[in-house]
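Many introductory courses stop at the sequence. We go one step further.
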Amino acid sequence: QVQLVESGGGLVQPGGSLRLSCAASGFTFKYYPMSWYRQAPGKERELVARITGRGVATNYADSVKDRFTISRDNAKNTVYLQMNSLKPEDTAVYYCYCRFGAPEYWGQGTQVTVSS
């Protein structure tokens, strides 16, 4: 059974940093790309960052480029999102995501709130 469990969210001041983690289980983690999405109140869910199975290639939403970094540790079956220079508009629930062809899987989400 595929499980994605996020952690690391919280309340941070503008300009601060957070590191999100997503622990994966139930599949051969190293073979699959992993993504982080986010959904702010009243807005659609959007892709934040994606990383290939071996971690060689990444891509980011324009709004987070140069501030966020996605990485993975295939030995720990974990994907990370390092978020720096956080802004109030980064406030959202952040979700871990993976897809195996048609089936797709989401974590339960972790709340990130950027506020002074």
